[in-house]
Write a structure and sequence with these properties.
seven-stranded mixed beta sheet
Length: about 180
């Protein structure tokens, strides 16, 4: 299990599916200097606990953590150097942050897509697959599902490998 030189990797899955653990193992197996880009914001105690759990799992393993809730493309450009690996966890939290700030989703997604083909670092993206359930009952939740689905399609198209993780088991969908 190694990171491809050919392009980014997208790891999708549901909540508590094992997607983050799988993505972290991919990056750790690379033997490269590791950057962890955290997009989440701690709006409540549950989210603070989730963040603390992820931080504890990476403790002492050589990760450099960067917290960036909005300017993901800018941070990736700044971190992009040959011989390093960057894990972004996760794209759906980034979508939430963009929506809460009223950002132009199409422009943000286009900026991310534009930097993917020319990157020097090895990139791994983690994201929640949210389009497999029932249609959400409110407009904001439907918009979120739709934005996440569009972003996943954009990143998957630009990725060398795409995995879907369920019950801790990765299913390779591309590459």
């Amino acid at each position: 299990m190694t990171i491809s030189h050919a392009g980014p990797i997208l790891v999708l899955g549901g909540a508590r599916s094992g997607k983050s653990t799988f993505a972290e193992k991919l990056v750790e197996a690379s033997g490269l200097p590791m950057h962890y880009v955290a997009t989440g914001r701690a709006y409540d105690d549950e989210m603070r606990d989730r963040i603390a759990h992820h931080q504890a799992a990476r403790q002492g393993k050589g990760w450099t953590t960067h917290e960036e809730p909005l300017d993901l493309s800018g941070l990736l450009r700044r971190l992009d150097t040959p011989g390093c690996a960057i894990l972004v966890d996760c794209l759906t939290l980034w979508v939430t942050n963009l929506m809460m700030e009223g950002r132009d989703m199409a422009a943000e997604f286009a900026a991310l897509a534009a930097l993917l083909p020319d990157r020097q670092a090895r990139l791994v993206f983690v994201s929640n697959e949210v389009g497999l359930g029932i249609v959400p009952e409110n407009r904001m939740a439907r918009d979120f599902r739709d934005h996440a689905g569009r972003l996943h399609q954009i990143v998957a198209e630009k990725s060398a490998e795409v995995y879907f993780v369920a019950a801790g088991l990765p299913l390779k969908m591309k590459g």
